[in-house]
Amino acid sequence: MAVFRSGLLVLTTPLASVVPRLAPILTSAARLVNHTLYVHLQPGMNLGGPAQPQSSPVQATFEVIDFITHLYAGADLHRHLDVRILLTNIRTKSFVPPLPSSVQNLAHPPEVVLTDFQTLDGSQYNPVKQQLERYATSCYSCCPQLSSVLLYPDYGPGMLPVQPLDVPLPSTIRPASPVARSAKQPVRGHQRGAVGGTFDRLHNAHKVLLSVACILAQEQLVVGVADKDLLKSKLLPELLQPYTERVEHLSEFLVDIKPSLSFDLIPLLDPYGPAGSDPSLEFLVVSEETYRGGMAVNRFRLENGLEELTLYQIQLLKDLNPKENEEDKVSSSSFRQQMLGNLLRPPHKRPELPPGCYVIGLTGISGSGKSSIAQRLKGLGAYVVDSDQLGHRAYAPGGPAYQPVVEAFGTDILHKDGTINRKVLGSRVFGNKKQLKILTDIVWPVIAKLAREEMDQAVAEGEWAGRWEEPGEQLSRLSPRSCPHPKSDHPLSLGLRFLGSLTGSKWQGAAGFLPTGKRVCVIDAAVLLEAGWQNMVHEVWTVVIPETEAVRRIVERDGLSEAAAQSRLQSQMSGQQLVDQSHVVLSTLWEPHVTQRQVEKAWALLQKRISEAPSDP
User: Fold this and answer.
1) ∠ Cα 331 106 9 (to 5°)
2) What tens digit of pLDDT does each residue of 408-455 get?
3) What distance lies between CA 515 and its chain's CA centroid?
4) Comparing C-alpha atoms, which of 447, 460, 461, 430 is closest to residue 568?
Protein backbone atom coordinates (compact mmCIF):
# COMPACT_ATOMS: atom_id res chain seq x y z
CA MET A 1 0.00 0.00 0.00
CA ALA A 2 1.27 3.45 -0.94
CA VAL A 3 2.23 5.92 1.78
CA PHE A 4 0.68 9.37 1.56
CA ARG A 5 1.97 12.62 2.99
CA SER A 6 -1.48 13.87 4.04
CA GLY A 7 -4.80 12.18 4.68
CA LEU A 8 -8.35 12.67 5.95
CA LEU A 9 -9.83 10.15 8.39
CA VAL A 10 -13.65 10.19 8.46
CA LEU A 11 -15.00 8.50 11.58
CA THR A 12 -18.60 7.31 11.10
CA THR A 13 -19.05 4.98 14.08
CA PRO A 14 -20.96 6.37 17.11
CA LEU A 15 -18.44 7.76 19.60
CA ALA A 16 -19.18 5.28 22.39
CA SER A 17 -18.55 2.40 19.97
CA VAL A 18 -15.45 3.83 18.30
CA VAL A 19 -13.56 4.45 21.56
CA PRO A 20 -12.30 0.84 21.97
CA ARG A 21 -11.50 0.71 18.24
CA LEU A 22 -9.60 3.98 18.15
CA ALA A 23 -6.06 2.75 18.87
CA PRO A 24 -6.06 0.14 16.04
CA ILE A 25 -7.70 2.66 13.69
CA LEU A 26 -4.96 5.23 14.35
CA THR A 27 -2.28 2.56 13.93
CA SER A 28 -3.73 1.57 10.55
CA ALA A 29 -3.95 5.23 9.49
CA ALA A 30 -0.35 5.86 10.59
CA ARG A 31 0.82 3.10 8.22
CA LEU A 32 -0.71 4.97 5.28
CA VAL A 33 -0.10 8.63 6.18
CA ASN A 34 3.32 9.91 7.27
CA HIS A 35 2.87 13.65 7.88
CA THR A 36 -0.56 15.28 8.40
CA LEU A 37 -3.72 13.38 9.33
CA TYR A 38 -6.95 15.35 9.47
CA VAL A 39 -9.85 13.80 11.39
CA HIS A 40 -13.50 14.52 10.63
CA LEU A 41 -16.19 13.35 13.06
CA GLN A 42 -19.51 12.34 11.52
CA PRO A 43 -20.89 9.64 13.86
CA GLY A 44 -23.79 7.65 12.45
CA MET A 45 -23.11 8.42 8.78
CA ASN A 46 -23.91 5.58 6.38
CA LEU A 47 -21.71 5.33 3.32
CA GLY A 48 -23.48 2.19 2.09
CA GLY A 49 -26.89 3.70 1.33
CA PRO A 50 -28.26 4.83 -2.03
CA ALA A 51 -28.14 8.55 -1.20
CA GLN A 52 -24.98 10.59 -1.12
CA PRO A 53 -24.27 11.53 2.53
CA GLN A 54 -24.00 15.20 3.42
CA SER A 55 -22.12 16.82 6.28
CA SER A 56 -24.36 17.58 9.24
CA PRO A 57 -23.76 19.43 12.54
CA VAL A 58 -22.47 17.46 15.51
CA GLN A 59 -23.65 18.75 18.89
CA ALA A 60 -20.74 19.87 21.05
CA THR A 61 -21.25 17.84 24.22
CA PHE A 62 -18.85 16.92 27.00
CA GLU A 63 -18.70 13.46 25.38
CA VAL A 64 -17.45 15.00 22.12
CA ILE A 65 -14.78 17.05 23.92
CA ASP A 66 -13.68 14.01 25.95
CA PHE A 67 -13.47 11.96 22.74
CA ILE A 68 -11.31 14.63 21.08
CA THR A 69 -8.94 14.47 24.07
CA HIS A 70 -8.93 10.66 23.92
CA LEU A 71 -8.07 10.76 20.22
CA TYR A 72 -5.20 13.21 20.71
CA ALA A 73 -3.91 11.09 23.60
CA GLY A 74 -3.92 8.03 21.33
CA ALA A 75 -2.25 10.01 18.55
CA ASP A 76 0.66 10.72 20.88
CA LEU A 77 1.86 7.17 20.21
CA HIS A 78 2.38 8.24 16.58
CA ARG A 79 4.39 11.42 17.03
CA HIS A 80 5.55 11.46 13.42
CA LEU A 81 1.93 12.33 12.58
CA ASP A 82 0.56 15.84 12.85
CA VAL A 83 -3.04 14.98 13.79
CA ARG A 84 -5.66 17.73 13.45
CA ILE A 85 -9.31 17.15 14.44
CA LEU A 86 -11.48 19.41 12.31
CA LEU A 87 -14.16 21.32 14.22
CA THR A 88 -16.15 23.02 11.45
CA ASN A 89 -19.22 20.80 11.92
CA ILE A 90 -19.05 20.68 15.74
CA ARG A 91 -21.49 23.23 17.14
CA THR A 92 -22.37 24.43 20.64
CA LYS A 93 -25.97 24.80 21.75
CA SER A 94 -25.74 28.57 22.16
CA PHE A 95 -24.67 29.38 18.60
CA VAL A 96 -25.68 27.23 15.64
CA PRO A 97 -24.82 29.08 12.42
CA PRO A 98 -25.41 27.18 9.19
CA LEU A 99 -22.70 24.88 7.92
CA PRO A 100 -20.48 26.50 5.28
CA SER A 101 -21.72 26.06 1.73
CA SER A 102 -18.25 26.23 0.23
CA VAL A 103 -15.45 23.70 0.46
CA GLN A 104 -13.02 24.30 3.36
CA ASN A 105 -9.40 24.81 2.33
CA LEU A 106 -6.78 22.87 4.27
CA ALA A 107 -3.08 23.71 4.62
CA HIS A 108 -2.14 20.20 3.47
CA PRO A 109 -4.79 18.96 1.02
CA PRO A 110 -5.43 15.25 1.69
CA GLU A 111 -4.02 12.78 -0.81
CA VAL A 112 -6.07 9.92 0.63
CA VAL A 113 -9.36 9.70 2.51
CA LEU A 114 -9.73 6.93 5.09
CA THR A 115 -12.72 5.73 7.08
CA ASP A 116 -13.69 3.31 9.82
CA PHE A 117 -16.89 2.46 7.87
CA GLN A 118 -16.81 -1.19 6.89
CA THR A 119 -18.72 -3.28 4.37
CA LEU A 120 -20.33 -6.56 5.39
CA ASP A 121 -17.90 -8.64 3.34
CA GLY A 122 -14.82 -6.70 4.47
CA SER A 123 -13.87 -5.57 0.97
CA GLN A 124 -12.75 -2.32 -0.62
CA TYR A 125 -16.21 -1.92 -2.18
CA ASN A 126 -16.01 0.64 -4.98
CA PRO A 127 -19.46 2.30 -4.56
CA VAL A 128 -18.69 2.92 -0.88
CA LYS A 129 -15.28 4.34 -1.73
CA GLN A 130 -16.86 6.59 -4.36
CA GLN A 131 -19.37 7.84 -1.78
CA LEU A 132 -16.48 8.49 0.61
CA GLU A 133 -14.45 10.43 -1.97
CA ARG A 134 -17.46 12.55 -2.97
CA TYR A 135 -18.20 13.28 0.67
CA ALA A 136 -14.59 14.29 1.38
CA THR A 137 -14.34 16.58 -1.65
CA SER A 138 -17.70 18.20 -0.83
CA CYS A 139 -16.34 19.23 2.58
CA TYR A 140 -12.62 19.89 2.09
CA SER A 141 -10.04 20.81 -0.53
CA CYS A 142 -8.36 17.54 -1.50
CA CYS A 143 -5.71 16.58 -4.03
CA PRO A 144 -7.04 16.03 -7.55
CA GLN A 145 -6.00 12.36 -7.60
CA LEU A 146 -7.65 11.50 -4.29
CA SER A 147 -7.34 7.89 -3.17
CA SER A 148 -9.63 6.19 -0.68
CA VAL A 149 -9.21 3.29 1.74
CA LEU A 150 -11.68 1.51 4.02
CA LEU A 151 -9.73 0.65 7.15
CA TYR A 152 -10.00 -2.87 8.53
CA PRO A 153 -7.70 -2.75 11.56
CA ASP A 154 -6.56 -5.90 13.30
CA TYR A 155 -8.49 -5.55 16.53
CA GLY A 156 -7.21 -8.83 17.91
CA PRO A 157 -9.23 -11.47 19.77
CA GLY A 158 -11.27 -10.17 22.67
CA MET A 159 -10.25 -6.56 22.11
CA LEU A 160 -13.72 -5.21 21.34
CA PRO A 161 -16.76 -5.36 23.61
CA VAL A 162 -19.99 -6.68 22.13
CA GLN A 163 -21.88 -3.60 23.34
CA PRO A 164 -20.71 0.04 23.41
CA LEU A 165 -18.84 0.95 26.58
CA ASP A 166 -21.00 2.48 29.32
CA VAL A 167 -17.92 3.72 31.18
CA PRO A 168 -17.44 7.41 30.30
CA LEU A 169 -14.08 8.73 29.19
CA PRO A 170 -12.05 10.82 31.66
CA SER A 171 -13.33 14.39 31.78
CA THR A 172 -11.32 16.89 29.78
CA ILE A 173 -12.86 19.92 31.47
CA ARG A 174 -12.66 19.70 35.24
CA PRO A 175 -16.17 20.40 36.65
CA ALA A 176 -16.53 23.74 38.42
CA SER A 177 -18.75 22.06 41.04
CA PRO A 178 -18.96 18.54 42.51
CA VAL A 179 -22.39 18.03 40.92
CA ALA A 180 -22.21 15.18 38.40
CA ARG A 181 -22.86 16.09 34.78
CA SER A 182 -23.99 13.95 31.88
CA ALA A 183 -21.61 13.12 29.01
CA LYS A 184 -24.48 14.08 26.67
CA GLN A 185 -24.81 17.51 28.27
CA PRO A 186 -24.27 20.25 25.69
CA VAL A 187 -21.34 22.62 26.07
CA ARG A 188 -22.18 26.28 26.42
CA GLY A 189 -20.74 28.55 23.75
CA HIS A 190 -19.37 32.08 24.11
CA GLN A 191 -18.72 34.82 21.61
CA ARG A 192 -15.14 35.70 22.61
CA GLY A 193 -12.53 34.05 24.75
CA ALA A 194 -8.82 33.61 25.34
CA VAL A 195 -6.15 30.96 25.82
CA GLY A 196 -2.42 31.34 26.41
CA GLY A 197 0.78 29.32 26.43
CA THR A 198 4.29 28.97 25.07
CA PHE A 199 3.19 26.61 22.27
CA ASP A 200 6.71 25.42 21.56
CA ARG A 201 6.75 22.51 19.11
CA LEU A 202 2.98 22.32 18.95
CA HIS A 203 2.03 18.95 20.42
CA ASN A 204 -1.13 17.01 21.21
CA ALA A 205 -1.63 18.48 24.69
CA HIS A 206 -1.55 21.95 23.11
CA LYS A 207 -4.07 20.75 20.53
CA VAL A 208 -6.51 19.66 23.26
CA LEU A 209 -6.27 23.07 24.94
CA LEU A 210 -6.73 24.91 21.64
CA SER A 211 -9.53 22.65 20.43
CA VAL A 212 -11.59 23.23 23.58
CA ALA A 213 -11.05 26.98 23.23
CA CYS A 214 -12.12 26.84 19.55
CA ILE A 215 -15.29 24.89 20.38
CA LEU A 216 -16.25 27.36 23.13
CA ALA A 217 -15.58 30.50 21.03
CA GLN A 218 -18.03 31.38 18.30
CA GLU A 219 -16.67 34.68 17.00
CA GLN A 220 -13.15 35.43 18.21
CA LEU A 221 -10.35 33.66 20.06
CA VAL A 222 -7.43 35.65 21.48
CA VAL A 223 -4.28 33.51 21.78
CA GLY A 224 -1.44 34.81 23.91
CA VAL A 225 1.96 33.37 22.96
CA ALA A 226 4.61 33.66 25.69
CA ASP A 227 7.69 35.66 24.73
CA LYS A 228 10.77 37.40 26.19
CA ASP A 229 10.77 37.53 30.02
CA LEU A 230 8.13 34.80 30.30
CA LEU A 231 10.53 32.37 28.59
CA LYS A 232 13.45 32.80 30.99
CA SER A 233 12.20 30.23 33.50
CA LYS A 234 11.57 27.56 30.86
CA LEU A 235 13.71 24.42 30.80
CA LEU A 236 16.36 24.64 28.05
CA PRO A 237 15.09 28.00 26.76
CA GLU A 238 17.92 28.07 24.18
CA LEU A 239 16.10 25.31 22.28
CA LEU A 240 12.72 27.07 22.17
CA GLN A 241 11.46 27.80 18.69
CA PRO A 242 11.56 31.53 17.81
CA TYR A 243 8.34 33.44 18.50
CA THR A 244 7.60 33.93 14.80
CA GLU A 245 7.97 30.21 14.11
CA ARG A 246 5.69 29.25 16.99
CA VAL A 247 3.05 31.74 15.82
CA GLU A 248 3.27 30.46 12.25
CA HIS A 249 2.63 26.84 13.28
CA LEU A 250 -0.11 27.89 15.68
CA SER A 251 -1.90 30.02 13.11
CA GLU A 252 -1.88 27.26 10.50
CA PHE A 253 -3.32 24.76 12.99
CA LEU A 254 -6.08 27.10 14.20
CA VAL A 255 -7.20 28.16 10.73
CA ASP A 256 -7.25 24.51 9.68
CA ILE A 257 -9.45 23.27 12.51
CA LYS A 258 -11.95 26.17 12.63
CA PRO A 259 -11.60 28.78 9.86
CA SER A 260 -14.89 30.48 10.81
CA LEU A 261 -13.27 31.96 13.92
CA SER A 262 -11.36 35.22 14.02
CA PHE A 263 -7.97 34.61 15.65
CA ASP A 264 -5.87 37.28 17.34
CA LEU A 265 -2.37 35.92 18.10
CA ILE A 266 -0.38 38.31 20.26
CA PRO A 267 2.86 38.16 22.28
CA LEU A 268 2.30 37.40 25.96
CA LEU A 269 4.75 39.61 27.87
CA ASP A 270 3.26 39.51 31.38
CA PRO A 271 1.25 36.96 33.40
CA TYR A 272 -2.09 38.68 32.71
CA GLY A 273 -1.92 39.55 29.03
CA PRO A 274 -5.10 40.62 27.22
CA ALA A 275 -7.19 38.37 29.49
CA GLY A 276 -6.52 40.83 32.31
CA SER A 277 -7.62 43.94 30.45
CA ASP A 278 -9.97 43.14 27.54
CA PRO A 279 -13.59 43.81 28.61
CA SER A 280 -15.04 41.94 25.61
CA LEU A 281 -13.63 38.54 26.66
CA GLU A 282 -15.99 36.07 28.33
CA PHE A 283 -13.89 32.98 29.09
CA LEU A 284 -10.33 31.78 29.60
CA VAL A 285 -9.09 28.23 28.96
CA VAL A 286 -6.35 27.13 31.35
CA SER A 287 -4.62 23.87 32.21
CA GLU A 288 -4.32 22.23 35.61
CA GLU A 289 -0.92 23.89 35.94
CA THR A 290 -2.06 27.39 34.98
CA TYR A 291 -5.40 27.39 36.87
CA ARG A 292 -3.94 29.53 39.67
CA GLY A 293 -2.78 31.98 37.02
CA GLY A 294 -6.37 32.10 35.72
CA MET A 295 -7.62 32.88 39.24
CA ALA A 296 -5.01 35.68 39.46
CA VAL A 297 -6.29 37.09 36.14
CA ASN A 298 -9.82 37.23 37.55
CA ARG A 299 -8.64 38.98 40.71
CA PHE A 300 -6.78 41.50 38.54
CA ARG A 301 -9.92 42.09 36.46
CA LEU A 302 -12.06 42.65 39.55
CA GLU A 303 -9.50 45.12 40.92
CA ASN A 304 -9.81 47.06 37.67
CA GLY A 305 -13.59 47.04 37.49
CA LEU A 306 -13.98 44.23 34.94
CA GLU A 307 -16.17 41.14 35.17
CA GLU A 308 -14.60 37.79 35.96
CA LEU A 309 -13.97 35.35 33.11
CA THR A 310 -15.47 31.87 33.08
CA LEU A 311 -12.51 29.57 33.66
CA TYR A 312 -12.33 26.22 31.88
CA GLN A 313 -9.66 24.03 33.48
CA ILE A 314 -8.30 21.35 31.12
CA GLN A 315 -6.80 18.15 32.48
CA LEU A 316 -3.19 17.44 31.54
CA LEU A 317 -2.42 14.84 28.88
CA LYS A 318 -0.33 12.07 30.39
CA ASP A 319 2.86 10.87 28.73
CA LEU A 320 2.66 7.07 28.79
CA ASN A 321 6.41 6.57 28.32
CA PRO A 322 8.35 9.35 30.06
CA LYS A 323 12.12 8.96 30.25
CA GLU A 324 14.24 9.68 33.29
CA ASN A 325 14.12 13.34 34.35
CA GLU A 326 11.19 13.98 32.00
CA GLU A 327 7.73 15.04 33.11
CA ASP A 328 4.91 12.48 33.21
CA LYS A 329 2.77 14.77 31.06
CA VAL A 330 3.04 15.53 27.36
CA SER A 331 5.14 18.69 27.36
CA SER A 332 7.46 20.79 25.24
CA SER A 333 10.07 20.62 28.02
CA SER A 334 10.38 16.87 27.51
CA PHE A 335 10.63 17.33 23.75
CA ARG A 336 13.48 19.80 24.22
CA GLN A 337 15.27 17.35 26.53
CA GLN A 338 14.94 14.70 23.82
CA MET A 339 16.69 17.05 21.37
CA LEU A 340 19.89 16.99 23.43
CA GLY A 341 22.55 15.09 21.50
CA ASN A 342 20.61 15.23 18.23
CA LEU A 343 21.90 16.92 15.08
CA LEU A 344 20.07 20.25 14.71
CA ARG A 345 21.46 21.36 11.33
CA PRO A 346 23.62 19.81 8.57
CA PRO A 347 27.38 19.63 9.31
CA HIS A 348 29.91 21.73 7.42
CA LYS A 349 31.80 19.88 4.66
CA ARG A 350 35.20 21.54 5.32
CA PRO A 351 37.30 19.98 2.52
CA GLU A 352 40.25 22.13 3.64
CA LEU A 353 40.59 20.18 6.92
CA PRO A 354 42.88 17.12 7.19
CA PRO A 355 41.06 14.29 5.37
CA GLY A 356 41.72 11.81 8.15
CA CYS A 357 40.08 13.96 10.82
CA TYR A 358 36.48 14.80 11.68
CA VAL A 359 36.50 17.86 13.93
CA ILE A 360 34.03 18.83 16.64
CA GLY A 361 34.22 22.30 18.17
CA LEU A 362 33.05 22.09 21.79
CA THR A 363 31.99 25.32 23.47
CA GLY A 364 29.77 26.73 26.22
CA ILE A 365 29.52 29.55 28.71
CA SER A 366 31.74 29.58 31.79
CA GLY A 367 30.49 27.04 34.32
CA SER A 368 28.54 25.02 31.74
CA GLY A 369 30.50 21.82 32.33
CA LYS A 370 32.16 21.92 28.93
CA SER A 371 35.42 20.40 30.18
CA SER A 372 33.59 17.45 31.76
CA ILE A 373 31.89 16.79 28.42
CA ALA A 374 35.30 16.90 26.72
CA GLN A 375 36.60 14.25 29.14
CA ARG A 376 33.58 12.05 28.49
CA LEU A 377 34.19 12.30 24.74
CA LYS A 378 37.85 11.47 25.35
CA GLY A 379 36.73 8.38 27.23
CA LEU A 380 34.76 7.31 24.16
CA GLY A 381 37.86 7.66 22.00
CA ALA A 382 37.93 11.25 20.80
CA TYR A 383 41.24 13.12 20.61
CA VAL A 384 40.73 16.29 22.66
CA VAL A 385 42.57 19.51 21.81
CA ASP A 386 42.46 21.75 24.90
CA SER A 387 42.61 25.38 23.74
CA ASP A 388 43.42 26.58 27.29
CA GLN A 389 46.55 24.44 27.33
CA LEU A 390 47.45 25.70 23.88
CA GLY A 391 47.01 29.24 25.22
CA HIS A 392 49.49 28.53 28.02
CA ARG A 393 51.96 27.21 25.44
CA ALA A 394 51.44 30.29 23.29
CA TYR A 395 52.07 32.69 26.22
CA ALA A 396 55.08 30.80 27.62
CA PRO A 397 58.56 32.33 27.13
CA GLY A 398 59.70 31.28 23.70
CA GLY A 399 56.10 30.53 22.69
CA PRO A 400 54.76 31.93 19.42
CA ALA A 401 52.63 34.63 21.13
CA TYR A 402 55.05 35.62 23.88
CA GLN A 403 57.14 38.28 22.14
CA PRO A 404 54.26 39.92 20.21
CA VAL A 405 52.22 40.22 23.44
CA VAL A 406 55.16 41.74 25.39
CA GLU A 407 55.82 44.18 22.57
CA ALA A 408 52.15 45.19 22.47
CA PHE A 409 51.55 45.56 26.22
CA GLY A 410 54.99 46.27 27.70
CA THR A 411 57.32 44.49 30.10
CA ASP A 412 55.28 45.52 33.14
CA ILE A 413 52.95 42.56 32.43
CA LEU A 414 55.81 40.15 33.24
CA HIS A 415 56.62 38.28 36.44
CA LYS A 416 60.18 38.54 37.75
CA ASP A 417 60.99 35.22 36.08
CA GLY A 418 59.97 36.64 32.70
CA THR A 419 56.66 34.78 32.35
CA ILE A 420 53.53 36.73 31.44
CA ASN A 421 51.35 37.63 34.42
CA ARG A 422 47.99 36.73 32.93
CA LYS A 423 46.07 38.42 35.76
CA VAL A 424 47.80 41.74 35.06
CA LEU A 425 47.28 41.27 31.34
CA GLY A 426 43.62 40.39 31.93
CA SER A 427 43.03 43.52 34.01
CA ARG A 428 44.60 45.57 31.19
CA VAL A 429 42.17 44.36 28.56
CA PHE A 430 39.04 43.73 30.65
CA GLY A 431 36.38 46.28 29.72
CA ASN A 432 38.64 47.82 27.06
CA LYS A 433 37.48 46.58 23.66
CA LYS A 434 40.39 48.17 21.80
CA GLN A 435 43.04 46.56 24.01
CA LEU A 436 41.18 43.24 24.00
CA LYS A 437 41.13 43.20 20.20
CA ILE A 438 44.87 43.83 20.08
CA LEU A 439 45.41 40.82 22.34
CA THR A 440 43.01 38.46 20.55
CA ASP A 441 44.39 39.46 17.14
CA ILE A 442 47.75 38.17 18.37
CA VAL A 443 46.73 35.11 20.36
CA TRP A 444 43.76 33.57 18.54
CA PRO A 445 45.53 32.90 15.21
CA VAL A 446 48.45 31.37 17.16
CA ILE A 447 46.14 29.00 19.10
CA ALA A 448 44.35 28.07 15.87
CA LYS A 449 47.68 27.15 14.25
CA LEU A 450 48.68 25.05 17.28
CA ALA A 451 45.30 23.30 17.20
CA ARG A 452 45.76 22.35 13.54
CA GLU A 453 49.20 20.96 14.34
CA GLU A 454 47.73 18.86 17.17
CA MET A 455 45.03 17.48 14.87
CA ASP A 456 47.65 16.52 12.28
CA GLN A 457 49.58 14.77 15.03
CA ALA A 458 46.44 12.96 16.21
CA VAL A 459 45.79 11.57 12.73
CA ALA A 460 49.44 10.53 12.31
CA GLU A 461 49.48 8.71 15.63
CA GLY A 462 46.17 7.05 14.85
CA GLU A 463 47.59 5.47 11.70
CA TRP A 464 49.29 2.92 13.96
CA ALA A 465 46.46 1.96 16.28
CA GLY A 466 43.63 -0.52 15.93
CA ARG A 467 41.84 -3.59 17.17
CA TRP A 468 40.45 -6.91 15.97
CA GLU A 469 36.72 -7.53 16.03
CA GLU A 470 35.67 -11.19 15.95
CA PRO A 471 32.15 -12.13 14.79
CA GLY A 472 29.92 -11.16 17.74
CA GLU A 473 32.91 -10.24 19.92
CA GLN A 474 35.34 -7.34 20.33
CA LEU A 475 38.89 -8.13 21.48
CA SER A 476 41.05 -5.76 23.44
CA ARG A 477 42.61 -2.78 21.72
CA LEU A 478 46.13 -3.04 20.46
CA SER A 479 48.57 -0.40 21.57
CA PRO A 480 49.41 2.58 19.35
CA ARG A 481 52.15 2.04 16.77
CA SER A 482 51.74 -1.75 17.03
CA CYS A 483 49.37 -2.07 14.08
CA PRO A 484 48.35 0.10 11.10
CA HIS A 485 45.14 1.96 10.43
CA PRO A 486 42.53 -0.24 8.68
CA LYS A 487 42.14 2.02 5.65
CA SER A 488 45.84 2.58 5.03
CA ASP A 489 47.80 0.92 2.22
CA HIS A 490 50.54 -0.15 4.58
CA PRO A 491 51.57 -3.76 3.68
CA LEU A 492 50.72 -4.94 7.19
CA SER A 493 47.26 -3.36 6.96
CA LEU A 494 46.62 -5.11 3.64
CA GLY A 495 47.77 -8.39 5.15
CA LEU A 496 45.58 -8.00 8.20
CA ARG A 497 42.52 -7.25 6.09
CA PHE A 498 43.25 -10.30 3.92
CA LEU A 499 43.67 -12.47 7.02
CA GLY A 500 40.42 -11.15 8.40
CA SER A 501 38.59 -12.10 5.20
CA LEU A 502 39.77 -15.68 5.62
CA THR A 503 38.88 -15.98 9.32
CA GLY A 504 35.65 -13.97 9.41
CA SER A 505 37.28 -11.38 11.65
CA LYS A 506 37.34 -7.67 10.92
CA TRP A 507 40.23 -5.26 11.47
CA GLN A 508 38.99 -2.09 13.17
CA GLY A 509 40.70 1.26 13.64
CA ALA A 510 41.80 2.78 16.89
CA ALA A 511 39.33 4.10 19.41
CA GLY A 512 37.91 7.35 18.11
CA PHE A 513 38.12 6.20 14.48
CA LEU A 514 34.96 5.89 12.46
CA PRO A 515 34.43 3.08 9.93
CA THR A 516 35.42 5.60 7.25
CA GLY A 517 38.91 5.72 8.73
CA LYS A 518 38.52 9.24 10.14
CA ARG A 519 39.55 10.15 13.65
CA VAL A 520 37.26 12.33 15.76
CA CYS A 521 39.06 15.38 17.13
CA VAL A 522 37.40 17.70 19.65
CA ILE A 523 38.57 21.31 20.01
CA ASP A 524 37.58 22.32 23.55
CA ALA A 525 37.32 26.13 23.35
CA ALA A 526 35.16 28.61 25.26
CA VAL A 527 35.88 31.27 22.60
CA LEU A 528 35.35 28.95 19.62
CA LEU A 529 32.77 31.19 17.93
CA GLU A 530 34.14 34.55 19.11
CA ALA A 531 37.51 33.59 17.64
CA GLY A 532 35.97 32.51 14.34
CA TRP A 533 37.28 28.96 14.73
CA GLN A 534 34.06 27.46 13.41
CA ASN A 535 35.81 27.34 10.03
CA MET A 536 38.14 24.75 11.61
CA VAL A 537 35.36 22.30 12.56
CA HIS A 538 32.72 20.17 10.91
CA GLU A 539 30.27 20.60 13.78
CA VAL A 540 29.82 22.96 16.72
CA TRP A 541 28.67 21.30 19.95
CA THR A 542 27.46 23.62 22.72
CA VAL A 543 26.95 22.82 26.39
CA VAL A 544 24.12 24.85 27.97
CA ILE A 545 23.20 25.54 31.58
CA PRO A 546 20.85 28.09 33.21
CA GLU A 547 22.71 31.30 34.03
CA THR A 548 21.79 31.01 37.72
CA GLU A 549 23.40 27.56 37.86
CA ALA A 550 26.45 28.82 35.97
CA VAL A 551 26.88 31.63 38.51
CA ARG A 552 26.58 29.16 41.41
CA ARG A 553 29.25 26.90 39.87
CA ILE A 554 31.65 29.77 39.12
CA VAL A 555 31.34 31.09 42.69
CA GLU A 556 31.94 27.61 44.11
CA ARG A 557 34.79 26.73 41.73
CA ASP A 558 36.71 30.01 41.46
CA GLY A 559 35.84 31.72 44.74
CA LEU A 560 34.39 34.78 43.00
CA SER A 561 31.50 36.90 44.22
CA GLU A 562 28.14 36.52 42.49
CA ALA A 563 28.59 39.95 40.91
CA ALA A 564 32.00 39.00 39.53
CA ALA A 565 30.63 35.71 38.19
CA GLN A 566 27.76 37.52 36.46
CA SER A 567 30.20 40.07 35.03
CA ARG A 568 32.26 37.21 33.58
CA LEU A 569 29.19 35.70 31.92
CA GLN A 570 28.09 39.05 30.51
CA SER A 571 31.46 39.44 28.79
CA GLN A 572 30.89 36.17 26.87
CA MET A 573 28.50 35.15 24.15
CA SER A 574 25.20 34.01 25.68
CA GLY A 575 24.05 30.41 25.59
CA GLN A 576 21.38 31.43 23.08
CA GLN A 577 23.93 33.02 20.75
CA LEU A 578 26.05 29.87 20.91
CA VAL A 579 23.10 27.53 20.30
CA ASP A 580 21.98 29.59 17.29
CA GLN A 581 25.23 28.54 15.56
CA SER A 582 25.41 24.99 16.91
CA HIS A 583 24.86 21.57 15.41
CA VAL A 584 24.49 19.62 18.65
CA VAL A 585 23.44 20.82 22.12
CA LEU A 586 24.19 19.07 25.42
CA SER A 587 23.50 19.98 29.05
CA THR A 588 25.06 19.07 32.38
CA LEU A 589 22.03 20.21 34.39
CA TRP A 590 21.18 16.76 35.69
CA GLU A 591 23.01 13.90 37.42
CA PRO A 592 26.36 12.74 35.92
CA HIS A 593 24.91 9.50 34.56
CA VAL A 594 22.29 11.50 32.63
CA THR A 595 25.06 13.62 31.12
CA GLN A 596 26.97 10.46 30.23
CA ARG A 597 23.92 9.05 28.45
CA GLN A 598 23.56 12.27 26.46
CA VAL A 599 27.20 12.15 25.38
CA GLU A 600 26.97 8.47 24.41
CA LYS A 601 23.85 9.21 22.37
CA ALA A 602 25.56 12.13 20.60
CA TRP A 603 28.66 9.99 19.95
CA ALA A 604 26.63 7.11 18.51
CA LEU A 605 24.67 9.45 16.22
CA LEU A 606 27.93 11.10 15.14
CA GLN A 607 29.45 7.76 14.17
CA LYS A 608 26.30 6.78 12.29
CA ARG A 609 25.97 9.94 10.23
CA ILE A 610 29.65 10.09 9.27
CA SER A 611 29.65 6.41 8.34
CA GLU A 612 26.68 7.04 6.06
CA ALA A 613 28.15 10.22 4.54
CA PRO A 614 29.69 10.08 1.05
CA SER A 615 33.42 9.31 1.09
CA ASP A 616 35.87 12.10 0.45
CA PRO A 617 36.91 12.30 -3.22
Assistant:
1) 70
2) 999 999 999 999 998 899 889 888 899 999 999 999 999 999 999 999
3) 29
4) 430
